[in-house]
Amino acid sequence: MPDAPLLDPTLDLFQCAREPIHTPGAIQPYGLLLVVDPERWVVIECAVAQPGVVAQFGNPLGQPLDAVLGGVLRASHATLSALAPDTSAFLGTLPLGEAGPHHALAHRSAHYLLVEMEAPIAGEPGSLEDLYPEIRQFMVEIENATNVAEQCQVATRHVRAMSQFDRALVYQFDREWNGTVIAEDLNEALASYMDLRFPESDIPAQARALYQRNRVRLIADCDYTPVPLLRDGARADAPPTDLSASMLRSVSPVHLQYMRNMGTGASMSVSLIREGQLWGLISCHNRVPRRVAYHVRTACEFIGQILSLQIALKERALAVEERVARRAIQVRLLARMAGDEDFMAALGRDPGSLLALTQAGGAAIVHRGACIMLGECPQQSQVLALVHWLTAQHGDQDVFWTEKLPAVWPQAEAFCGPASGVLAISISQLHDSFLLWFRPEVVRTVRWGGDPRHKLQAGDAGQALSPRMSFEAWKQTVRQQSLPWQEVDRDAALELRTAIVDIVLRKAEEMAELNEQLVRSNKELEAFSYSVSHDLRAPFRHIVGYSELLGASAAERLDDTERRFLATIVESAKSAGTLVDDLLSFSQMGRSTLGLASVDLGVLAEDVRSKLDMEYAGRSIQWRMAPLPRVEVDPAMLRLVWQNLLSNAIKFTRHTPEPLIEIGYARVGDENVFHVKDNGCGFDPRYVDKLFGVFQRLHHADEYEGTGIGLANVRRIIDRHGGRTWAEGELGKGATFYFTLPLSPGADQ
Q1: Is the model's pTM score more than 0.90?
Q2: Average pLDDT, the chain
Q3: CA dihedral 387, 391, 392, 393 (to 10 degrees)
Q4: If residue 114 lies in a helix (H) or strand (E), which one and from where to where?
């Protein structure tokens, strides 16, 4: 609990947490305190518990340090001068006239030098060496302890033996700064607090900061009368002096009332600092007031430091063992991912390793719309809702974790059974892709040392302040929480994330390289096709031309067979020339850029149909054309689409008695769907996949002319517009060819 100089019956628990505990303006009544200006070596403030000291030596205020108290500190001048900021020194046991010998300690702060002298205790050890046998035995026993709990139990037993308190316990902080008693040694004078939990408000943040600065604190009597710290008039408006380092520093009346409610007359605490952070406390209590000698406090502090080191070593060793085990699991997962094209599916094929990596009960992999769930998980819709929430609220975090998911996202109450805890890593910066681990709800009973919901209250007359009236065990049932995620769990998840991202990037680089090669190959192929088709046009024209000249000039000398041969040459050359022209058109189609414009496809289709009149001259074809929309397309390319589809319909209805050609339209979802339907010869649906390939024909050239490039051009054009093409047909019953175009921006919905 924090310390403060004055008792205010209106204080509540939050005021308590804001008290200036490092500047109480008073000391406990067991000695004296001098505040010295380190530049002038003059006493600028003092607090003296024994009036006889002032009567014998005079008021120290305003006096040179070497002269006060009969010059007893003159011999310590060199030691005091050498003190660096935030350090302390024991000056020895110095005579204080009629008050007898006093232990003297010095503390150097950033601005002041504090010298405190405390009265000795009858029968106290003469030096730290007198306590060495107890310390040595402690070191032997703690080295043999197999875990942290045993180490703490050894420490409580030896601290209580040296301090002679009724109860000594080790109090460990959790991540929320609640404390749990994990070790205890006591006699029958006080009740056991073993396994009890105490709320964070019992030791607020500023009190914890003070415990970290000053590792030993003693309150010898909860009913003591504070001795005020006096200053001369010239310093009346100066800021309060920081007494954090002083052992005699007075403490908060709130805390003193807290002690009375606990039934303890004296207390001492030793801070346990692990790797620079406050890990817990060795806390000692006595039924009646009790002072602890300086050398005993020093020995207890030494035990606290050794225990802190042993805790750090033990926890670090356990962490290393656990990390090695997790790394082995990760290696197995990486081996699976590296040897599989679909690395996410590879994770799903080893659910045991994936769950063991973070000690989870279930896991889900959400990537590019797919959701793979392993073990005990919420429903898929709930997992996807959770991913949506994570993206919106924590999308900038590489890792997110909580053991209280319903508390941070109320919708999780619906599936708190399998997933009260979640650990999630983002595995893509472009997609809502996550790997999530779930831990189930663990319903457990927590025993508190009193109801943590009770706040500090103002009492009736005669009971000015009541921080808590009862410290009897109070049970709380905790729900909608999982076991907490440890640092090793989070680190294992982050390492896997790094590996996954590396694999994704490597595969992306490989795909980019393959794509670059494909683009280069396509360009070379298109250039080759263009070159070949362009260069072949002239030879075919020459063959046709010279064959026709030969037929005209030698017509009288040629018999019927020779004329038939010559006609076949001309027809074949013309067919080859047409094929070359179509191939050239197909090659140019892939190289040309799209010139998008708003086009009325109904007008365009009708224009193409009218220009094809000569192809069905002498035939009667019934046309049906639905209203077509205006779309954003390349007009020249879409003209070619209509030309190919309509000319095919005209051609393949050549032998149909009553030909019917229909141009239709429908809007489906976010697409415009068009079709050209005829009742011609149709095609075998088994070969539908060949229709849109280059040079693919399903009818013999003697029946229906053509090069087999027209539909390939249609597909290429529609693909470039972001659409799709397909066909349906049946032999003797006609065919229907479909193509789609995306809705234009701003199209009427």
Answers
A1: no
A2: 82
A3: 90
A4: strand 113-118
